[in-house]
Amino acid sequence: MTVRRLLVLGTLLAGFALSGAAPAAADITVGVAVPRTGPYVAVGEQVLRGVQAAARDANAKGGLDGQTIVLDVQDDSCDSNQAVAVANHYVQADVRLVVGHVCSNASLAASEVYAAHGIVMITAASVAAKLTDRSFPTIFRVCGRDDDQGKLSAAILAERFRDRKIAILNDLSPASRQLAAATKDNLNRIGVNEALFTAFQASDADDAALADRLKAAGIDVVYYGGDAQEMGRLVRISAERGFRPQWFGTSAIATPDFAKIAGGASNGVLMTFYLDPSRKPEAQGVVAAFKGQGVEADGSMIYGYAALQVLVAAANFARSTDPAVIAKTLHAERFDTVLGTVGFDAKGDITAQGYVLYVWRDGIFTPAKGN
């Protein structure tokens, strides 16, 4: 069962006033649904920190349509059933604006509840194409789509590794399966066929067996859309067993946890991830504020900031807290954000630039040459 936590923002990481009581009349509650337990905790923390910073900054400028933003943070553990429970909690608590969820399976499940009750949901990290392909009028994302990520991954594989033996893996999780399928389909359309397309059960024993199988098959390049913990473990175990292919990951490993788990074997690993907004001029003030708190604005942190930022911008533009009005405004207008000037298409997808290629080196990822 999740525990309701109302966080009244005073500073970026501390100084929150906690209350179990209902917000005052001059407050507006925004739900924040992120994993605070399970394998995606690091990504959830990035998104949450970004939202907290955006709420702090918005409140300093008058809040959302003149009301002070209060955050109701809930843990969905990236579990579909728990995500639905969180969504129902927001319905019962009359929370009409939600930043979340992080994992695509959680967002897909919860969005059905939000759409049915007219709640605006905007995710900073869920990439499943189906989330917005259903064209629910109140469902949005500030990140990219997995089909776009699959297209870029396939193009890179074809351009850089056409004559190498390529393996495409998935670990049976929904996100991993979707990314593997999208990459395979796009790669095959280009005219390149992978040497191996297979699923495996993530575990130390299976990772070791898989590494030996790939090595025996003479695989040169391994594409895998697993999370930071599993890919980090697979890369490390493979290296320990003398198998060092060119690894190619996805946005799911855009957290320092990957390099910590993979160790030195993380060097040279390729990864597709959203355009790094921390390098954009529009984000420099936010990045500097994070650094002032001793925090690097990496991974999904800026996207968490942007998710709340556009909600506030739409509400202030429309001078309304009505979720239906905010949703229509998000679809119709463009907003100056840390991601640049952006809008949303009819499906709820953001117009910002999508994915680019990164490479891991010495525990951090930076844009790869030739982007």
H-E order: EEEHEHEHEHEHEHEHEHEHEHHHEEEE
Uncertain spans, ≥5 residues at pLDDT below 50? 1-21
Strand order of the largest sheet: 2-1-4-3-5-6-7
Number of domains: 2
**Count of individual beta strands:** 16
Q: How is this structure best described in words?
A:
The chain has 371 residues and is of the alpha/beta class. It folds into two domains: 5-144 and 279-353, Rossmann fold (3-Layer(aba) Sandwich); 147-276 and 356-367, Rossmann fold (3-Layer(aba) Sandwich), CATH 3.40.50.2300. The protein has twelve helices and 16 strands. The strands form three sheets. It has a seven-stranded mixed beta sheet with strand order 2-1-4-3-5-6-7, sandwiched between helices. Strands 9-8-10-11-12-15-16 form a seven-stranded mixed beta sheet, covered by helices on one side. It has a two-stranded antiparallel ribbon with strand order 13-14. The longest helix is centred in the first third of the chain and has 20 residues, at 41-60. It is elongated. Keywords: Amino-acid transport, Signal, Transport. It holds the Pfam family Peripla_BP_6. Belongs to the leucine-binding protein family.
What is the gist of this entry?
This is Amino acid/amide ABC transporter substrate-binding protein, HAAT family. It comes from Methylorubrum salsuginis. This protein is of the alpha/beta class and 371 residues long.
Descriptive keywords:
371 residues, Rossmann fold, 2 domains, seven-stranded mixed beta sheet, 12 helices, 16 strands, 42% helix, elongated, amino-acid transport, signal, Peripla_BP_I, Leu-bd
